[in-house]
């Protein structure tokens, strides 16, 4: 796999940010908030099913997001955790119906990362300021939800270790992608929380007085595990300053939808099919 890169493109009317080179045979993308059917504070591509939106609208939004990624036919296998700001990692090792059902049930009991080594099993985690992290090995991946609690608990490192063990990979072979999240300039926290982060990560955590840099902490966490800086790509836009593109819990007063991080390994019969028609890039 070469160095990671992220580009913005449109597929099936949905705006995505992903690595179109499909590193390691993995297809993944971060969604933006446009291209769906939800209305009001959830407009329009809300993928979260626990924020009060209409269930039928969420289902249609998820169908559209999966279609945009080339995974619409795999909706029954979707693994979507109930995110609890912990550090539990679900592992999916097979697309066998019983294994997928087991993983789906475990995920709904509460988890904040999913490691998948099985082709044909899409994974979705949802966000509205917290940090999405996608880790890619050959024919395997992890999708991670890292809010401040997950970041201080080093959930990205835990998911990386689980991924490496499951995929038989070294950290130096993994590519990491940090998705849209609240930027340090928008993330003012209490002095107590800042002190906790500085004690854990050092001065890199504090971008300016009481402004917490979650991405810097996550990058440091991954580096300590052996992921070099050139193996990490990130989305620069802050969700709190870009509510036209992303949902932001903080900027929208806690009442909003969720964008997503979606990933899957296409089944053998689906390769080399393309993930939709990319009609616009920026």
Helix content: 10-25%
Helix-strand pattern:
EEEHEHEEEEHHEHEEHEEE
**What characterizes the major β-sheet?**
6 strands, antiparallel
Strand proportion: 15-25%
- What are the segments in which pLDDT stays under 50 over at least 5 consecutive residues? 272-279
Distance between the termini: 23 Å
On the 0-100 scale, what is the average pLDDT? 95
Secondary-structure-based class equals alpha+beta
Enumerate the strands of the largest sheet in spatial order, edge to edge or round the barrel: 6-13-3-2-1-14
Q: What would you call the shape?
A: globular
- Radius of gyration (CA) equals 17 Å
How many helix segments?
6
User: How many strand elements?
Assistant: 14
Describe this structure in words.
The protein has 282 residues and is of the alpha+beta class. It is built from six helices and 14 strands. It has helices at 55-69, 97-108, 148-152, 155-167, 191-201, 214-224, and strands at 7-11, 14-18, 27-31, 89-92, 113-116, 123-127, 131-137, 140-146, 175-178, 206-208, 211-212, 232-234, 259-264, 278-281. The chain has a six-stranded antiparallel β-sheet with strand order 6-13-3-2-1-14. Strand 1 and strand 2 form a beta hairpin. The chain is globular.
What topology emerges from the helices and strands here?
Blueprint (H helix, E strand, L loop, with lengths): L6 E5 L2 E5 L8 E5 L23 H15 L19 E4 L4 H12 L4 E4 L6 E5 L3 E7 L2 E7 L1 H5 L2 H13 L7 E4 L12 H11 L4 E3 L2 E2 L1 H11 L7 E3 L24 E6 L13 E4 L1
């Amino acid at each position: 796999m070469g160095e990671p890169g992220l580009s913005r493109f449109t597929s099936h009317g949905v705006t995505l940010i992903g690595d179109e080179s499909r590193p390691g045979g993995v297809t993944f993308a971060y969604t933006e908030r446009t291209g769906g059917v939800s209305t009001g504070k959830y407009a329009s591509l809300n993928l979260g099913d626990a924020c009060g939106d209409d269930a039928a609208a969420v289902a249609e939004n998820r169908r559209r997001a999966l279609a945009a990624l080339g995974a619409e036919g795999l909706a029954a296998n979707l693994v979507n955790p109930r995110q609890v700001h912990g550090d539990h990692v679900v592992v999916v090792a097979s697309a066998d119906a019983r294994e997928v059902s087991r993983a789906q049930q475990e995920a709904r009991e509460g988890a904040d990362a999913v490691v998948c080594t099985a082709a044909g099993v899409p994974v979705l985690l949802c966000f509205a300021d917290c940090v999405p992290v996608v880790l890619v090995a050959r024919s395997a991946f992890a999708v991670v939800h890292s809010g401040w609690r997950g970041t201080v608990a080093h959930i990205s490192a835990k998911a990386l270790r689980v991924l490496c063990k499951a995929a038989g990979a070294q950290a130096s072979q993994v590519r990491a992608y940090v998705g849209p999240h609240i930027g340090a300039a928008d993330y003012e926290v209490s002095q107590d929380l800042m002190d906790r982060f500085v004690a854990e990560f050092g001065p890199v955590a504090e971008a300016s007085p009481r402004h917490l840099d979650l991405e810097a902490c996550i990058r440091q966490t991954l580096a300590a595990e052996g992921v070099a800086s050139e193996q990490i790509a990130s989305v620069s836009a802050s969700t709190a300053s870009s509510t036209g593109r992303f949902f932001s819990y903080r900027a929208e007063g806690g009442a909003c939808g969720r964008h997503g991080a979606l990933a899957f390994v296409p089944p053998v019969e689906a390769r080399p099919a393309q993930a939709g028609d990319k009609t616009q890039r920026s």
